[in-house]
Structure formats: structure tokens, C-alpha cells
Amino acid sequence: MSESSVWYTFETDTGAIAYEVISPQTGNPAPTLVLLHNFMSTGRAAWGPLLEQLSRQYRILLPDLPGHGRSIGHPSGFHHRAMAQQLAALLEHEGATEAHLAGCSSGGMLAQWMVVERLVWPATLTLVSTTYSVNPATTGHVAPLEPAHFQAGPHWMEATARLHDPYHYDGYYAEILLAGFRRLRPETLIDLQLEALTQFTMPVCLIHGAEDEFFPAAIPQAMAAALPRAELHLIPQQTHALIFRQPWRIAEIMVQFLNAHATADGRHLPHTAPAT
Fold first, then answer.
1. Residues 6+ apart with CB under 8 A from 132
2. The dihedral of CA 124, 41, 105, 237: what is its sign?
3. Helix (H) or strand (E) holding 233
4. pLDDT digits (tens, 9 = 90+) for 167-207
């Protein structure tokens, strides 16, 4: 792998976020691209296969979410709104509040929270295998988020534990992350209204498996209809966590999307606090 990276830590009120800064392969200054991974994964595990291609033109900011991988501590109940606030503080520290922003699954929910709360003003937003709400009463389409329903390999639990336990203790994944995932609810995860997405005036790229077992295609279709500047890519015969199934396809779509908006910046959104 040709990219060059350095690990840093950023202190939060509940611990510290570990993150990589990956230099662009050109060696010259380049726009920043922030990549947020899915729950129970890490930055490298989720986005690793895409980094070679994405770092050709971008400086990559790649955090492990609070409580994940090398990061220590997390908000109570892995409350996503609070996690988004911590990540936004990291982006401000790195001068990346107007960077390009991408998130897969839970990372996409966190990205949406940051935009809704006007904590960041991303140049573009890429959302992979995600939703605006996990509340069936809101979307009418959400299946229960149960680990047993993941269409993954037979040993994915053991492999996932190896992403976290070495940086904490044996059993950390099962005791903290897996248990925390099972306790997530709409009030601690995400439950936005489609109306909120109408305020997203940056270009948005939605990439989704057409056979997603948790967030059916009707969800990204509704999101694309609500977003003022959206493009939707439904990948046939693909399920949830598309980033692990067809990373080359996601990289191809992202590069085309980012190149189309290479001169974008965060000035399309007013830098004002949300109404309280």
C-alpha cells in the first residue's frame, strides 16, 4: 500500500478518539476527505480497500469512532448525537469542518447528525448503506437491527472482536460494543424527518445495496427525493454493509462524484447554530 499515514489522538469529554491522517500520494496540498466507519468496525477495516484510490487526490482523515478500535471511551449508550459532537470537535481541531465527508451505515448517521446540527459544513456528503431514521414509525421500512440478521461470513463475530480487543482487553468487543449495539434505539441512534434533509444544500451521493436487509431501497430513494442535490446509486443484488462487499464499486462511484464537485467548499451552508 502506497499511502503514508500518521496516527494521532484527540481528547474528548469521555476519552480520546484515535485517528489517522493519510497524506495524498501527490505529496502536494490536497482537499481533505473525512471517512466515518460503521458501528463495530474501525476506520481501516471499513475503508482500507478504498484508501489507495481515494488518497491519490485527497488528504484522508480516518478516525476510529468513539469506543471503537484504538479509540478510548464513548458517550453513554453510544448516543450518536453526542458522538457526532465529539467527531465534529475533532474535525474543527483538524481544520476539516468544510472537508468532503463520507460515512457508511452508522458513520452515515453520524455525518447526517453533524450536518443537521450545523457542526460542520461539508463540501460534499457521501452516504453508504445508511438511513435517516431507524424508527419504523418514521420510515415504514426498517427491519430490526439484530446481529443475527447480518448477511456476513460465519466467523464475522470473531474477526470483529480482533479489531477491538487487542487495544482494550479480551472480551471488550462482546461486553461493550456488541452489547451497546443491541441496546441502540431510535432515540440514541437516529430518527430524523425527511424534512431535515431538504436543508442539505451540498451535493450528496447515496450508495446503497438494492437488497439491503436493514434499510430497504425505498429509504435511500426517499432520501434522494428530499435532498436538493442528490445522486442515487442502487447496486443490484447487494445487501447491507456494501463497503465490505464491493469496495471497488464504491471507490469508483466516489471518485467520479468527488471529481465532479472538486471545487466545492462548505460555503453553501450558513454558519449559524441550529435553533433550540
1. 112, 138, 139, 190, 192, 193, 194, 196, 197, 219, 223
2. positive
3. strand 230-235
4. 999 999 999 999 999 999 999 999 999 999 999 999 999 99
Burial (CB < 10 A; 0-12, 13-18, 19+), residue 108, is buried
Contacts of 24 (CB under 8 A, 6+ apart): 30, 55, 56, 57, 58, 59
Q: Provide the 10 A C-beta neighbour count for residue 59.
A: 20
Of 139, 159, 137, the residue nearest 150 (C-alpha): 159
Give the C-alpha separation, 19 to 37, whole Å.
Answer: 12
Cross-sheet strand order for the sheet of 125-128: 4-12, 15-23, 59-63, 32-36, 100-104, 125-128, 204-209, 230-235
Q: Name the pTM for this structure.
A: 0.93
Is residue 129 within 8 Å of residue 208, measured between CB atoms? yes
Cell of 263: 471545487
